[in-house]
TrEMBL record:
Protein name from the UniProt record: ATP-dependent Clp protease adapter protein ClpS
Keyword set, alphabetical order: Hydrolase, Protease
Family: Belongs to the ClpS family.
Native species: Undibacterium pigrum
Quaternary structure, from the entry: Binds to the N-terminal domain of the chaperone ClpA.
Protein task: Involved in the modulation of the specificity of the ClpAP-mediated ATP-dependent protein degradation.
Alphabetized InterPro entries for the sequence: ClpS (IPR022935), ClpS_core (IPR003769), Ribosomal_bL12_C/ClpS-like (IPR014719)
Upper taxonomic lineage: Bacteria, Pseudomonadati, Pseudomonadota, Betaproteobacteria, Burkholderiales
GO molecular function, one term: peptidase activity
Gene Ontology biological-process entries: protein catabolic process; proteolysis
Pfam families: ClpS (PF02617)
Length: 102
């Protein structure tokens, strides 16, 4: 019986290894101070969106309070959040950027 339990544990570990990595949405949050044009520039620069798509995301942030900029692996999402926050603070804007597991 001990072998079956060990085999079950090994199979469970193998199943976990085969599971695809979790993905994360990177989201911009609305505030009353960050200029719309700055948000568009951020979306274009850090999320590689064309101007029209960046405008649509900015308007979604403005209207709905948040907008998804992209879906990435955990490390990439975390890096993008940090880059956006650093850029916004250096520019003197309170723009918030967060990530949520999909």
């Amino acid at each position: 019986m001990g072998n079956k339990q060990e085999n079950g544990t090994i199979l469970e570990r193998q199943a976990q290894k085969l599971k695809p990595p979790s993905m994360y949405q990177v989201i911009l949050l609305n505030d009353d101070y960050t200029p719309m044009e700055f948000v568009v520039a951020i979306v274009q620069e850090y999320f590689n969106k064309d101007r029209e798509t960046a405008m649509q995301i900015m308007l979604k942030v403005h209207r709905d309070g948040k907008g998804i900029c992209g879906v990435y692996s955990k490390d990439i999402a975390l890096t993008k959040v940090e880059l956006v926050l650093t850029h916004a603070r250096k520019a003197g804007h309170p723009l918030q950027c967060v990530m949520e597991e999909v």
